[in-house]
């Protein structure tokens, strides 16, 4: 089955659940009320058109472990809330200063910077509140809340974002070697991008009630998946258009950030006739590196087969990994 087919299968369930989760009506009445403008900004960011890769991975992981979509959906919604909050803050003028996201004005352009910040703050809190409200087993809820908090926190997504900002002030020459520079950038993206992919598959597995061996194997799958995703993202930043990606291209290069095509060209010592790094060689080397990561992802899934619990969605996880190498948007 094509990736688009099973993403389309999950998407209506995810979209409805996301919409329900950011209604914010207080059934008890009283003073607790979400302001209309804040609700509108939250819904604008959370319900923006997208592939829903992270929530889909939660559902696929759960089904691969013998679980159900119903039990996994709170984790899917929570991880997408964290993702949406991170994009709102990532786009702010003090961060990456983007004015376009998923083909639309970014949240701070649409609603103002202050409301955008508050919408991100609210989504972060609501992600954990959603797990608390919607996961019936208290021990499982605590496990899922802790898992997501760790992925989103100072040593995960936020720490990766901080190091990503700092990376604007360094060059390849500041490291002992081009390889050391590449490994530093990989460490950034394993947190900034990869941490939520890892949380996604682990949340799905936790919702299915499986043991740590399986949860950890799925985590290794997602670590490799996430790094391949970011490498491909950097390649697309050179090869795709603004319209294809729904955001400005080559902004990282313009801000002086190290990208995988540049790093891989330096590691291969590939230069053009003018002595500049040959990014075309770097792009091909980056694609090869992404392919190696995807092979690691496939290898990690072998634990599911050996434990004889893989369901129909184990094949979907394999297909999702291959999709990363083929994506053009």
UniProtKB/TrEMBL annotation:
Belongs to the FPP/GGPP synthase family. Pfam families: polyprenyl_synt. This is Geranylgeranyl diphosphate synthase, type II. It comes from Neorhodopirellula lusitana. Its cofactor is Mg(2+). Keywords: Isoprene biosynthesis, Magnesium, Metal-binding, Transferase. The keyword Transferase applies. PANTHER family: FARNESYL DIPHOSPHATE SYNTHASE (PTHR43281:SF1). It comes from the Bacteria. InterPro entries: Isoprenoid_synthase_dom_sf (IPR008949), Polyprenyl_synt (IPR000092), Polyprenyl_synt_CS (IPR033749), Prenyl_diphosphate_synthase (IPR053378).
